[in-house]
Amino acid sequence: MTTTHPPIQVGDAFSVGKLTPRQLLALAASAEPGTTDPVEMALGDTLRREYPDLQVPEVLPGESSPARRDRRYSVARVRAFPGSEGAIRDLNVMRGDLEAVMGAARAPREIRSVLRRNAQMASMRGARPLAVASARVQPDGSLGPYRMQGFVALRTTPARGFAEETALRPGEWVRVNVWSALLRFQHWLNVVVVFVLSCTGYYIMDPFFGPPARAGEPTGYLMGWFRLVHFIAAFVWLAVGLTRVIMAFRSRDRYLRWPALWPLRRKSDLVNLGQTAQYYLFLRKHAPLYLGHNPLQQLTYTGVYLLGAVQMAVGFSLYSLYHQDNAFWALVATPAHWVGVPNLRLLHTMIMFALWAFVIAHIYLAVRADSLERHGGVSSMVNGGVWLRRGSKPADAPVIE
């Protein structure tokens, strides 16, 4: 019986040591001459094709030991490997399962954490990490301690679009419901209401079209219609805000309850916040995986909630100036008397522009994240669910099974 191995594709090399990614790939490709191992053959072919100036490291016959069921990594002696800083050394190379190699190499906690996060991102893209560790061979033939060098991403299928790969390998992907129907309805209602409020509010501030005001001539009721639409949208927005407050205390979804508004409760949250910020600033290749909002997103949304609440208060204080014969509206108008109507109107306008700056950044980051991470985050605000690879571990949820 003949067994046909699927073609193996070699992806990125992620280094945590002093080796460059191409040196790490060379170390991972080390094999005995004439090897028939499909992984070693794929690594060697990739090295020769992409880095023709590098040779596949030499492993003499009998100086390698393959992985076993009780030892999920192989060990090989590499002769005269050109490592970092141009040093030529004999090395023992360990290659195999990430957790097994990290355990055998006794990798420090911070190295394990970095490797796991990046391996998780590689797994979400359909790859499996081939971990690599090395130990120097001392002049007397003894071995120094093994040190983690990184991993090389391997996959058995060519990179495809998310929809195509999901259709071909549906068992590897899991759709997880995250956002409730009420929250999604609120989201899109917010979009419509803020758009209407901004357009009508801008016209109220600067009526750039309409009949000109001439002495003795009627100007019509155009401004009145704009103000009416603005006020109706404002009351709808207030209803949406009150509904969201109620959900924060009544919802069964932990992502919607009030504790989620402040996501920094552990040291790991602060670490993930910094790493997410670096990712958005193009200083990191991957961000921590979250099922709901990551800490930076949630802090931003919490800030927008507060900004929206201030905008509502300012708007209704201005609205109440026309109803001061009523005790309630007279009380609501108090801030306008404290700071002055022109200052309050200026604040109202500045918050409007701040909200639009958020909308522009929000759309860009949402589309960018969906394009890079391919988990359906944008469409989740329509259908409520995201797609995650089976076995991935979000920072805010159990392992996806």
Describe this structure in words.
Strands 1-6-5-4-3-2 form a six-stranded antiparallel sheet, with helices on both faces. Helix 7 crosses helix 9 (295-319). Helix content is 48%, strand content 14%. The model is unreliable at 1-5 (pLDDT under 50). The chain is of the alpha+beta class and 401 residues long. The chain contains 13 helices and eight strands. It has helices at residues 21-28, 38-50, 98-105, 109-124, 162-168, 181-205, 222-250, 267-280, 295-319, 327-332, 334-339, 341-373, 380-383, and strands at 9-15, 64-65, 73-82, 88-96, 128-136, 147-155, 173-177, 385-389. It folds into two domains: 9-159, Calcium-transporting ATPase, cytoplasmic domain N (3-Layer(aba) Sandwich); 176-389, Transmembrane di-heme cytochromes, Chain C (Fumarate Reductase Cytochrome B subunit).
- Give the radius of gyration: 30 Å
SSE class: alpha+beta
Q: How far apart are the termini? A: 34 Å
Question: What is the residue-mean pLDDT, rounded to a whole number?
Answer: 83
- Taking pLDDT < 50 over at least 5 consecutive residues as the criterion, the unreliable ranges are 1-5
Sum up the overall morphology in one term.
Answer: elongated
Please outline the major beta sheet.
Answer: 6 strands, antiparallel
**Approximately how much beta-strand content do the residues carry?**
5-15%
Q: What is the fold-level CATH name, i.e. the topology of the largest domain?
A: Fumarate Reductase Cytochrome B subunit
What oligomeric assembly is this protein in?
single chain
Strand order of the largest sheet: 1-6-5-4-3-2
CATH superfamily of the largest domain: Transmembrane di-heme cytochromes, Chain C
Q: Could you spell the SSE succession in H and E letters?
A: EHHEEEHHEEHEHHHHHHHHE
